[in-house]
Fold this sequence. Notes:
Elements: E1 6-7, H1 14-25, H2 39-52, E2 94-95, H3 96-113, H4 121-138, E3 145-149, H5 152-156, E4 171-174, H6 181-197, H7 203-222, H8 227-230, H9 232-235, H10 246-260, H11 263-272, H12 291-303, H13 311-324, E5 334-335, E6 341-342, H14 349-369, E7 371-374, E8 380-381, H15 383-398, H16 422-425, H17 442-446, H18 476-479, H19 483-499
Antiparallel strand pairs: 1-7, 2-3, 3-4, 5-6, 7-8
Amino acid sequence: MARRVSSASSASSPVLCVVLLLTLLRPLQQVTAAAAHNYFDALHKSILFFEGQRSGKLPPDQRLRWRRDSALQDGSAAGVDLTGGYYDAGDNVKFGFPMAFTTTMLAWSVIDFGRTMGPELRNAVKAVKWATDYLLKATAVDGVVYVQVGDPHSDHNCWERPEDMDTLRTVYRIDRTHPGSDVAGETAAALAAASIVFRSRDPPYSRLLLQRAISVFEFADKYRGAYSSSLSGAVCPYYCDVNGFQDELLWGAAWLHKASLRREYREYIMRNEIALHAGDTINEFGWDNKHAGINVLISKEVLMGRADYFMSFKNNAEDFICAVLPGIPNTQVQYSPGGLIFKAGGSNMQHVTSLSFLILAYSNYLSHSNKVVPCGGGVSATPALLRHLAKRQVDYILGDNPLGMSYMVGYGRRYPTRIHHRASSLPSVQAHPARIGCKAGTIYYVSPEPNPNLLVGAVVGGPNVTDAFPDSRPYFQETEPTTYINAPLLGLLAYFSAHG
C-alpha cells in the first residue's frame, strides 16, 4: 500500500517511537566491550581493501605492497586489452556483473557522501577510476560488452596467487545474438554514475563515461535477454541472474537520467515502471536485484519537489523503509539476536551494507526535505531513527556484536584472520619468490594458521543468523570478502566519520 510522506512536524506517537528506538538499542545489551569507533580509520581501510583486489599492472602509488602485477595478458585470447579491473572476491576471476555494481555503489558513495570523506576522497575517486578504466575497455567495441575474464571452473579448482595464475583466462562477451541486458544495464549505470563523480574533476573523462553509458544502455535495451541464458556455463552458479533484467534496465535509465537530465530517460522510466514489481522484491538490493535502490534513487527527485511524476517510486521507497524497521508488526527483514540484518544465502554482509546505505541515503533525503515516513500504528520513520538503524549495522560490523569481533580485517583488536582469499592466504611474492602451483597452494588453504598477508579493510561475509562465526577458510560464505560488500560501506563510514 502506498504511504503518504508527511512533514517532520506531523504528529506521531512518542511512546511508539520510543519503543521502536529501544528495540533498536536492545541488542547492545549483549555486546561485549562496546566502544566508540574511529569511523575515519575504518573508511581509510575500507578503501585500501580495493587496492588489494586490483588486477593488472599496479601503479607506483600502490599502498598494499604485498600485492604484485597480475593477469597482464587478460583479453589477449580475444585480441583485446582487458587488463585491470578488480577481482570480485577471494578468487581470481573478473566477473563483470558484480564489478559493475561495485562501481555504481562506489560512485554513489562519492556522490552522496564524498563531502565527508576528507582526505580519503582522493583515494575513493581512484577506486572508482580503477573500475571505470576497465569498464571502458570492456565496452570499447560497439554492440559488444566483455563481461568476464577467467574460466571459473578452472579457477576454483586451484588455490593460487593471482601473480602465479596459470588457469584459463577465457574471455566471455555478450553481443547482439547473445544478449545480456542485466550486466549491460548495470554497466551503463556504473558508467553514468561515475560520470557524475568526474564531472568537475575531469570533464573530458566524464563526457566519455556518459557517452559510453548511453551507447551501452541502448544496446542493453535493444537486444534484450539475460546473460545467464547466453553464458550459463560460465556465470552460473556464481553470478547467475535469477531476478531478471528489467530492473537493471530501469536502474541504468535512472542513473542516465540523473547524469544527463535528458527527458528521454524520464519517459523511459515512466513507460517501463510497471516492470518494477513490488511484492517480495521491494526489500532487496544487491548485484542481482536493484528494486529498492531504484526506488530510493528516484525518490530523491520527488522529495525535493522536482518530479511528482515519479510518485510511485517514492511510495515504494517508503514501503521499503517501513519494512526494514525492527520491532513493528510489519517488519519484513530478519534480524539476528545481536541486531544484524540477516537474509538467507551466502555472504550476508552484502545485504547489510547495501540496505544500510539505502536507509542512510533516504534518511538524508527526508532530512533535507523536512519529511518523515508514517509506517502505520502511529510509528514514523524519522531521519534520526533511520540514521540510528544504519549506524547500528555499521557498529555491529566494526565490533559491537555478541562476539566482540570486528568483521573488517585490520580494524579493532579482534578480526578474522583466516579469510577465504587466495592472495591473502598464500605467501606473498616477496616472501616466496618461487611460483606456487595450482594444487601446491592447498596446504595453505587447509592450514589452521592465520593468513600471512593482511587484506586490510576487507569485510567478510559475516556471522550466521545466530551471530556465530567460524574463522576458517573453508567456510567461504562467512569468511570471503567481496568488493560489493565494501563499496556501499564507503558512504556509510564517510557519513559517520563526520556525524558520529
